[in-house]
Design brief:
By secondary structure, chain A is α+β, with helices and mostly antiparallel strands. The first copy, chain A, is built from ten helices and 19 strands.
Amino acid sequence: MNVRFDRIVRIQAAMRDNGWIAIVILNHDDYRYLFGTDRAQPRAVIPFHGPPELIAFTGEEPELRAALADGKVHVFGSVGGQIHDVVGRLRELAAAAPAEWAVDGRYKVGIQQWFHTPAFLIDLFKTVNPGIDVVSSDPVMDPLRMIKEPEEIALMTEAQRIAGLGMDRARALLRPGVTAQEIATEATYTMMKAGAEGTSTPIYVNFGVETCMLHGRLSPAPLETGQLVLIDLTPTVDGYCANLARSFVMGEPDDRHAGLLATYREIVATVRGGMHPGVTTARLDELAGGVCAAHGLGERQVYGIGHGIGLRFEEPPASTIIPPHKNLPLQDGMTVTIGHTILAIPGFGGVRFEDVYRLGAAGPEILFDYPIDPVVSA
Amino acid sequence: MNVRFDRIVRIQAAMRDNGWIAIVILNHDDYRYLFGTDRAQPRAVIPFHGPPELIAFTGEEPELRAALADGKVHVFGSVGGQIHDVVGRLRELAAAAPAEWAVDGRYKVGIQQWFHTPAFLIDLFKTVNPGIDVVSSDPVMDPLRMIKEPEEIALMTEAQRIAGLGMDRARALLRPGVTAQEIATEATYTMMKAGAEGTSTPIYVNFGVETCMLHGRLSPAPLETGQLVLIDLTPTVDGYCANLARSFVMGEPDDRHAGLLATYREIVATVRGGMHPGVTTARLDELAGGVCAAHGLGERQVYGIGHGIGLRFEEPPASTIIPPHKNLPLQDGMTVTIGHTILAIPGFGGVRFEDVYRLGAAGPEILFDYPIDPVVSA
């Protein structure tokens, strides 16, 4: 455990600016960001002032108390006890907060609402805290988390390097008759041996027409000569996510294969050329669309060529999840993928090449420069 | 894809009984249950009558249309398009529904609210469908899904068998100096080679005092002689979850090790003896508590000795997540784990042995009888 009091202090300042009495952490990614570790049920309260408070069970207390130094550990014997005591703690914070933070007598608490915040937990929270207004914690957390510190870039680079090892292994297995399960098994093993904790999404290995699917899991039938292959690897290192996708052709490419592959290479090059602080993903999609149109594939474009990435597999800007994010300007220090969306001919197959970049003042820096080498001899 | 029209028809009948116009599927587990496959963004509408409707992107349409036979595929070019068209579809269903289903002019739509339903998606859904009341789909889905069909039991048994292979491999690696990462890597590889898609939770491998944690991920320091070891494996097969946990002692057990191990064996035996249709997990916890008390460990009991399992890693009864579930009576045909909660001495370590059972009319049938053999020679 490595409590990041530096980050907590900044978050508390932003919370006070917003007039929130607390942020309640229910998510792995925020828990990692603030406490430098993870657990099955990450639960903590960041009050508007004072030390952070971990929510734990009796048996866990000595370990957590030792790790948290002068912080507070709330200890409960049961889930019901946890709920009860968080309610009481929020009442205390409301009583101690400036009266002007209350709107109609109700105080605000920030909670992340992203993919891993279960809807029922938010419902339960609202039910047991009727005097609290739950708001998304994004306005406080995003400005910090979007801009990556050097140590975060180092972990993401390592994750991306490990994805490259997995892709090397996967590519070496490509031959007629190989199964997607075999490729996923061996790539996972290679990446975990190299230090990955696991993957942030299932591994996607698709053959033939199934490469049209937006992230189609594992194809059931073995690979055949003449098919497109799409492999998307997402290992994590200390919670930080990699994202490396590559397309291959098993055997000699035909004209459609070659056209899709060449177009996607050009999309990546053009979008990279247009990445600079201030640009939006909407603008990057326009650049991608121009390339598609020039190759007669304009109607095949899917929007969302890139997305933010970090301790969450998709984080702001996440235009493929939250449409208004397409208008968020990229900033110096953000980490973004390019190559997220498939370029596909329905009924035939699709391609993409996805990598992770750190956006600097002068433009994008690829975290790990993995080759694009799509033709595999049969 | 294997569309389960038999299940869909039963769900639609239950929806009509409840006066819901649709169930909106946003979850992998319901998607698997109804369509026999999975995808990265599982999205479907089950209307109160007529064929199910899949929500897909342009490039995916030919594949999905071929698979769905006479069902409907809604095709969209973007996330915004998906949202817009679902809103329109629900308006059509509301217009076609019996007027008496509306309460104050508002119609009900069921959506699962479990762990993998993101809170922001529910928020977004409510915002764009202001005339709809969102209700938990549990009252319709749970009665079907809690009672497992023979083919489901077969998949869960296979998953549990594969967990056993992973545990064999993990146990064989136990020696002073081995790391949790190495054990997780090799166990994952063994299980995926045997056919697991992956695991439904991260693998937990804990050493020493970290065995106190309720599911503590991977211990950072290598194993030492005299430490307790806790390994929890959760492979999935066709989406169905296994759950196999075992405790070990590296080297000769001391009195505290031996006491914890013997007590937990007795807990499992006693709880198994008390499992029959009609019993609640609250009652099973009482039985476990009696054993703890008899061994002087009464104050160390953590409630929640078992939980439902299937296409979700924890499903009803899930008393450790939803406290009222402790009063749900078990039924013939349910699948339940026993051994979920740790028995720990804070600052020292904890143990548990967890397996999956099918509850029959005559009592519990273990899906795969994996040995309890906790002492590992140094």
